[in-house]
Amino acid sequence: MKHPICPSNDSTHLPKRLIDVSAGQNPKLYESAGESGRYAALSHRWGTSLIKTTLTTYTRRTREIKWEELPRIFQDAITITRRLGLSYVWIDSLCIVQDDIKDWQEQSAQMASIYAGSLITIAATSSDDSDSTCLSRTNRSEMPAPLNSHQIFARKQIKHEHMFNSRMNDVAYPLFSRAWCFQERLLATRILHYTEQEIVFECRTGYQCECDGIWKGNDEAVYLGPTLSSSCNKETLLWFRVLGDYTTKEMTFEWDTLPALSGVANRMPTDLMGDYLAGLWQKDLIYGLLWRSEDGTECSRHRIYIAPSFSWASRSGPITFPPFTSRHQPSASILEAKCETATFNRTGEVR
What we know:
Helix content is about 25%, strand content about 20%. The chain is α+β, with helices and mostly antiparallel strands.
């Protein structure tokens, strides 16, 4: 079935690096030459024994990555990629040189095109870290139930509501609690969620699960909610909704606050929203300045400088915005607003 709003991604420009998982050989790091092709991408939580590409290991990775060196999640991702008939998979810790600041800044700025361009994103949605597996069917088994002389198989009804609540961090889906993974989910064209009980397919049109218990639309109206009577444009309201969800997520390093949302920011229409100012947008800055910490939640200033104090990114913890209706019209105006970026990425870290 073809969905009008879901790009086919049958042939897109390959990222700078990929893991070549062609059958009959050990995986290896592949440097693309700007050619087009198809590839998968992995979305996962990092673990303590995560294998990385560094300046020291780079050359060795291009020759071979031994199977036994790979954590279980990476092995599973490669197995899934091969079963889908693909030869390449993008894995962040292997495809970005982790101790090369310039390369990290360059490649993290490409997240939007990497995940949006992948044919499929493999999401280890119920896995706590890279050492666990997403292919275990331990909790997906069906129990036999005798019925006269026949036998039927049944399992507990699966609850799906938390799968669609991007603000709720459910222990059953550890991946959804991470900030980087939240961005990856928003950017991906289509996703295979590997959960403890089943596989759920998600695309920009909707969702479908193995048990056929759900079909839910995934269009912009569902995410935005009612916007017709708002004094803001719908793109600004979408951004505020993204920020409300994003600020509930966890991250290991405070300095990732802006970079971990950079890919989504790069997809927003600058002609409608203006310049990007440390997590807010110039044209609707008068509304953006009205963010506040969510009631009943903990918030605190970062230990290091992340953003100017007018930005939500200057502190940690969930935020919210007031309801902007047509009755709420600004009685002030912004005369000038500027923000200097710390790198070449216009939506990344700031000075």
